[in-house]
Amino acid sequence: MFRQTFNIRGFRSGEIRENAKKIIPSEAVVELDVRLVSNQIPEKIESLILTHLEKLKNQSERFAAIIDKCKIGFGASFHPLFTHLELPWTKILAEAIKEGFEQEPLKLPLAGGSLPLYSLYKVTEKPIYIIPYAQPDEANHAPNENMMTEWFEKGVKTSIKLLQKLGNTNLSS
């Protein structure tokens, strides 16, 4: 989770099941996902990817023929954001979570997922934390996504405790 990634997010080509045909598909679509880490700028990474593809084209006519047939585009991108756990806010959050969930929190400096939080950070210049309130097996974003009532209630208790603690705290950053 602390390294950048370059993943195939999705691949589509041809038909299956009742629409299957015994032909070579005329099109293949691949979506890639690039996970950035601190100090990487989305526009710079896009430029590096395009430069690499150009180098491949110059190395081989075969690569050039394949790459020239590709439609390459870039979708939404987010600047990476990293909040250091040594900040004083972390202790306040940990205390609220411990009181709300009645157990020690698991502190991860980075986790999977993409959120456009960098813009909020630029406006507030405050550290940003994410506190997941659902149980670990909640099947996030799956058709059977779920959340146990007990965890929801503990999340509400944690939020109340956190707001109380923040209201009684004077931290400048």
From the coordinates shown, what is the CATH architecture of the largest domain?
Orthogonal Bundle
Low-confidence spans: pLDDT under 50, at least 5 residues?
none
Strands across the major sheet, in which order? 1-2
The outline comes out as: flat
| Percent of residues in helices | 25-40%
Summarize the main sheet: 2 strands, antiparallel
Distance between the termini: 26 Å
- Could you please say which CATH topology of the largest domain applies here? DNA polymerase, domain 1
Give the mean pLDDT.
87
Instruction: Report the portion of residues in β strands.
Output: 5-15%
Please give the radius of gyration in angstroms. 22 Å
What is the CATH C level class of the largest domain, in words?
Mainly Alpha
Number of domains: 2
SSE layout and pairing:
Elements: E1 5-13, E2 28-35, H1 42-59, H2 61-68, H3 88-101, H4 118-124, H5 149-167
Antiparallel strand pairs: 1-2
Structure characterization notes:
With 173 residues, the chain is of the alpha+beta class. The protein has two domains: 5-68, no CATH class; 88-167, DNA polymerase, domain 1 (Orthogonal Bundle), CATH 1.10.150. Helices cover 38% and strands 10% of the residues. The protein contains five helices and two strands; from the N terminus they run E-E-H-H-H-H-H. The chain has a two-stranded antiparallel sheet with strand order 1-2. The longest helix has 19 residues, at 149-167. The radius of gyration is 22 Å and the shape is flat. The model has no long low-confidence stretch (mean pLDDT 87).
